[in-house]
Amino acid sequence: MTTVDDMRSAQQILAEANVIAVVGASRDPMKPSHTVPLQMLRHGWRIIPVNPFVDEIFGVRTVPSLAAIDGPVDMVNVFRPARDAVEVVRQAVAIKAPAVWLQSGIVSAEARRIAEEAGIDYVEDRCLAVERASGQLSKLA
């Protein structure tokens, strides 16, 4: 089992990630669940939008669930209400994602417990785009 001392910081998780599955990605350009993953995409991360209701978001084909992703992901980014976070974290554990990141305003003690028991990195109530900007991170050469 991973201990707290073994857990990576939010900056490390983001710096080491290349492929980010975004659960709850939105096609509405006014929502953070659209603008944040779009910013990450523009800075060189590969984004896999997870949304069962649309075929494409920001020019990227969506998948209906984490289980439908073909290949490994480095992080699952969650834009769903806290009550949904527990099930999303269970799914992230099932696909062997090494990290889960709940966006600003999303907190779940149960989701945290599931992630910690599975030994995966867990971040909650933090914005991916803010962390990217503050760490001046980019995947572009």
Set down the secondary structure blueprint.
Blueprint: H1 10-16, E1 19-23, H2 32-42, E2 46-50, E3 56-57, E4 60-61, E5 75-78, H3 82-94, E6 99-102, H4 109-118, E7 121-123, H5 128-134
Parallel strand pairs: 1-2, 1-5, 5-6, 6-7
Antiparallel strand pairs: 3-4
Helix pairs in contact: 3-4
Description:
With 141 residues, the protein is α/β, with parallel strands linked by helices. It is 34% helix and 18% strand. It has a single domain, classed as NAD(P)-binding Rossmann-like Domain (Rossmann fold, 3-Layer(aba) Sandwich). It has five helices and seven strands. The protein starts with 9 loop residues before the first helix and ends in a 7-residue tail after the last helix. The relative contact order is 0.20.
What attributes characterize this protein structure?
141 residues, alpha/beta, Rossmann fold, two-stranded antiparallel ribbon, 5 helices, 7 strands
Characterize this entry briefly:
It is built from 5 helices and 7 strands, in the order H-E-H-E-E-E-E-H-E-H-E-H. With 141 residues, it is an alpha/beta fold. The chain has a single domain, classed as NAD(P)-binding Rossmann-like Domain (Rossmann fold), CATH 3.40.50.720.
